[in-house]
Amino acid sequence: MKNKYLPKFKKILLFGLNKENLGQEEVKKLGNLCKQKIFLEKDSPKLFGELNDTDCLLVNQGMTVDKKMINNAPNLKFIGILATGYNRIDTVYAKSKGIVVCNIPGYATESVAEFVFGLILEHLRNLEKAKQISDFGDFSGNGFNASEIKNKEFGVVGLGRIGSRVAEIALAFGARVSYWSRNRKKNIEKKGINYKPIDTLIKKSDFLSLHLSITKETVEILNKKRINLIKKGTIVVNVAPMELINLSGLINRLKKGDMTFIFDHPDEMEKKDVEKLSRNRNCIAYPPIGFITNEASAFKKEIFVSNISNFLEGRPSNKVS
Amino acid sequence: MKNKYLPKFKKILLFGLNKENLGQEEVKKLGNLCKQKIFLEKDSPKLFGELNDTDCLLVNQGMTVDKKMINNAPNLKFIGILATGYNRIDTVYAKSKGIVVCNIPGYATESVAEFVFGLILEHLRNLEKAKQISDFGDFSGNGFNASEIKNKEFGVVGLGRIGSRVAEIALAFGARVSYWSRNRKKNIEKKGINYKPIDTLIKKSDFLSLHLSITKETVEILNKKRINLIKKGTIVVNVAPMELINLSGLINRLKKGDMTFIFDHPDEMEKKDVEKLSRNRNCIAYPPIGFITNEASAFKKEIFVSNISNFLEGRPSNKVS
């Protein structure tokens, strides 16, 4: 009922998005928010022609929206990204043209936080091997050993949404949890999660989980010097972008065999770099499946669509420019 | 210094225990608590001869101490078990002879509770498969899906030490946690963990974790009727003895393919029963590695030795008869 009186977009252009990755129901909802909608594949030659009368551009994760595209869309008012990261969108130029850009922050907080503990516990308890030897009928448990999260020093680098949840869950496991973040978070400190300077945090932690986004300040925040501060036996988990870490420093440290590194974004790296990392048995690569729960996926689509309707209602949500 | 003035045992007989499973240091400590110590293998023919002047009998997990053994140990004052369970010790007969029996409760609480979440998250996130396809260089993440613990109904059957920790950790993951236990636990209910009658709990839970010990009342507490109450899609974890569950009922339910069963005590079952279970792809067997962390193992040995010295000091700890 409400939508009837709402302004609508003239034309929504869905770029790199289709019914499969967006979902039948969401596509239907978008239909109520515009007079016309067009789906275009990633490298479609029709792109610039279609952009001309587009007032709403929706793009999939990893898609580029540059000056040239924006210049070819004189009627554009809104860009929506089906992702948290928007570093391939020229948001500064969009802003200069009066175009609002919205992203989807925090949709996968729980998904990623739970994943971190999956990775840690899988490694601590050697679950892959345990399942495999069970499949062969060996139920002796011989040759297994393990250690606990409880009473260990658990360090969280970056206390945003995901980092905070990781810290809280680690606390419930009985770890001694500390964090470093650009800003002190007094609320979370009240729960018994202590602030430490980054070098101290890295030096003391038995578990170290990285939860920073990429900015000028955070690129290679784990530099060579800091990588060598990591304690022997520490398990480092990085479900954030690998740009946080100096790669050659990490590879050199891994060669010593005295710590473990677990990550889930080999997909965003050069193949040769992944190979250099993976040569080390103490480096465990996962596919990028941290953020993919059904719940996260549903929530993401929900926010994506509500960003659009909120903009139409004159109160844009999740604006990044 | 203190030990110098303590009474000592005349002869400690270590049955099925050796320097390897007990540890060099603990064996040394035992040396300070007795005048003589003897190690005997499980099926040693020397057993009855050696029992005659034994006043302290220490046995490994799973060893039997029956009437015949007790009758052959007229000087026996103390039986110590390197385990929690003592169902193979004739504690009633031991008591009738004035023999104190001590066990080691709760040493593996954290070890087992953490393991439960390892099993759940490994399954939810398909980590075994993820590691394997990564090893083959496939970093696409295609074909993976997952669901979260958060906001799900998490049921704990049996709220002893381990059950309580599992409930607390599930709460930190953001689950709605309920329990059934023989006795209401008001303290834990204050934390937001709700009591439910057992049938309701089984009917409502998306995750169901069993944490009961075996007694007359708990044998097959998950009977055929209750097994069929389990919701579609539920993940049942049993790191407790399999005697809690009616096996043919479980096998029939698993055949339907609409729930998942994860357990870690195939070692205590008939081989043919394990095979019947394992034929179902929705049944996941692990070796018995829930209680084996280094921390649990160290704590276990510590309590084992302190039970002995406490008895000698006239204040026995962890008496079971």
In total, the number of domains of chain A comes to: 2
Helix content of chain A: 25-40%
Biggest contact: A-B, 51 and 51 residues
CATH topology value of the largest domain in chain A: Rossmann fold
Could you say which overall geometry of chain A the principal axes of the C-alpha atoms support?
A: elongated
CATH architecture name of the largest domain in chain A:
3-Layer(aba) Sandwich
| Helix-and-strand structural type of chain A | alpha/beta
Beta fraction of the residues of chain A?
Answer: 15-25%
Q: Would you identify the regions of chain A where 5 or more consecutive residues have pLDDT less than 50?
A: none
Rg of chain A is 23 Å
Please tally the β strands of chain A and state the result.
12
Mean pLDDT rating of chain A: 95
Query: Oligomeric form of this entry?
Result: homodimer
State the end-to-end distance of chain A: 31 Å
Q: Main sheet of chain A, how many strands, which sense, barrel? A: 7 strands, parallel
CATH class of the largest domain in chain A, please?
Answer: Alpha Beta
SSE string of chain A: EHHEHEHEHEHHEHEHEHEHEHEHEH
If helices are DSSP runs of H or I spanning 4 or more residues, what is the number of helices of chain A? 14
